[in-house]
Write a structure and sequence with these properties.
The chain has an eight-stranded antiparallel sheet. Strands 3-2-1-4-5 form a five-stranded parallel sheet. The chain is α+β, with helices and mostly antiparallel strands. About 35% of the residues lie in helices and about 25% in strands. It starts with a strand and ends with a helix. α4 (about 90-95) runs antiparallel to α5. The structure holds adenosine-5'-diphosphate.
Length: about 450
């Protein structure tokens, strides 16, 4: 096992990883920008190294500075968390070239899954169901027209190098297609420096359902159930739940088996998530995230498995030591992402936290790096806490969530707590009747 792990991240996820390390008897090294000198992850770590000024490109994205920090402190592994360099294959390669273990899948796997055209081809080859679409990239408007005729309108044009919902355009007919194609290509070029685009049938009312995968270096793969992340605003997840209200046991077991077989074929190792769109009982592969995800705690709540601990264990070369039949699913879990934003306009609200009182009690978990008197810096994303609640029944989980949201006190900055209170009081949400467009429609209605 590792003796010292460097955590190349900040905020709640840096703290989450620190906690897993401490419980495993591993020392931690925090890295931080000058804006984060007072951050909780820096205070708690065994050692801390300042890696640059506030802008992320000069600090949390500064590969050389992070590797130097690992060398100076003698860390034997780097955990990248999510965001920042977590899906940067070049960085993972640099880490390994310096004799440091990368806590994640191989650089080759990260690179393949990071290119959407390649990822989709790999998905098809390994037996994952995909959205009908073009065979790889689409190089001309005329080629796009032919694909659209074949799969039928509406269609969506997507950047091969895409991410964060950028470079995607929908066309409902041939006259819209020309403009959609050209705009998507231009956006892809400006946002990602790569104008390669591909096409898919546009699904109109899908849910976003993802499967958590955990694999060791010896070909053992388990699936830790699904998360329903359909509640999104501008392609950003707002609230997630597990299990999905849309799936029954048979459907869940079937998709987990398909994913497990595919991951074994691909030779995947470490932690990963396969994202699907789900409509009319069918799953369609969207993409694979080759890292730990923000919403991992709901999976931990329903499986009782500490996924960060497992991720560190398998990266150190330990075998999983259990198989799919040993995984037990129990109860319901919901996570609310609480952002320092105005709950109606979503304008970020950085500033100094006054009173900070978190809810407690049975089956209530708060993952956050905030404290009273802390100044939320304006340089990074605005999430200040994740509230995760478990219940034996979905209704029990909802009642507990309502109680916990009502108890949460955050003063000094505006937060999205009122938005979550409104969502969970809505009858569609209570009935589990929602798709990826539900939240934006709900927000427009007000
Ligand atoms: P990104 O990596 O930019 O987030 P994804 O491929 O994961 O791109 O897609 C992001 C979102 O775009 C999905 O969650 C979904 O809301 C929408 N989307 C993508 N492909 C389709 C499709 N074929 N039909 C309908 N919606 C889609």
């Amino acid at each position: 096992m590792f003796e010292k792990v460097l955590i190349a991240n900040r905020g709640e996820i840096a703290l989450r990883i620190h906690r897993a390390c401490k419980e495993m008897g591993i020392k931690t090294v925090a890295v931080h920008s000058t804006a984060d000198a007072d951050a909780m992850h820096v205070r708690l770590a065994d050692e801390a190294v300042c890696i640059g000024p506030a802008p992320a490109r000069d600090s949390y994205l500064n590969k050389a500075a992070i590797i130097s920090a690992a060398m100076i402190t003698g860390a034997d592994a780097i955990h990248p968390g999510y965001g920042f360099l977590s899906e940067n294959a070049d960085f993972a390669e640099m880490v390994e070239a310096h004799g440091i273990t990368w806590i994640g899948p191989s650089p080759k796997m990260i690179r393949m899954m990071g290119d959407k055209v390649q990822a989709k081809a790999a998905a098809i080859k390994s037996g994952l169901p995909v959205v009908p679409g073009s065979d790889g990239d689409v190089r001309t408007v005329d080629a796009a027209k032919i694909v659209a005729q074949k799969i039928g309108y509406p269609v969506i044009i997507k950047a091969a190098a895409g991410g964060g919902g950028k470079g995607m355009k929908v066309a409902h007919n041939e006259s819209e297609l020309v403009e959609a194609y050209n705009t998507a290509k231009l956006e892809a070029k400006t946002s990602f420096g790569n104008d390669m685009v591909y096409m898919e049938k546009y699904l109109q009312t899908p849910r976003h359902i993802e499967i958590q995968v955990l694999a060791d270096n010896y070909g053992n793969v388990v699936c830790l159930g699904e998360r329903d992340c359909s509640l999104q605003r501008k392609h950003q997840k707002v609230l997630e739940e597990s299990p999905s209200p849309a799936l029954n046991k048979t459907q869940r077991e079937k998709i987990m088996e398909i994913v497990r077989t595919a991951m074994t074929k691909i030779g995947y190792s470490n932690l990963g998530t396969i994202e699907f769109l789900y409509e009319n009982g069918e799953f369609y592969f969207l993409e694979m995230n080759t890292r730990l995800q923000v919403e991992h705690p709901i999976t931990e709540m329903v499986t009782g498995i500490d996924v960060v601990r497992e991720q560190i264990r398998v990266a150190s070369g330990a075998p999983l030591g259990y198989s799919q039949k040993d995984i037990r699913f129990d109860g319901y879990a919901i996570e609310c992402r609480i952002n320092a934003e105005n709950p109606e306009t979503f304008i970020p609200s950085p500033g100094k936290i006054g009173c900070w009182h978190v809810p407690g009690g049975l089956w209530v978990r708060v993952d956050s790096a905030m404290y009273s008197g802390y100044k939320v810096p304006p340089h990074y994303d605005s999430m200040v806490a994740k509230l995760i609640v478990f219940g034996r029944s979905r209704n029990g989980c909802l009642m507990r969530l309502k109680r916990a949201l009502d108890e949460f006190v955050i003063e000094g900055v505006e937060t999205t707590i009122p938005l979550h209170q409104r969502i969970i009081a809505n009858s569609d949400f209570i009935d589990g009747q929602y798709n990826i467009h539900w939240l934006e429609n709900f927000l427009e209605k007000k």
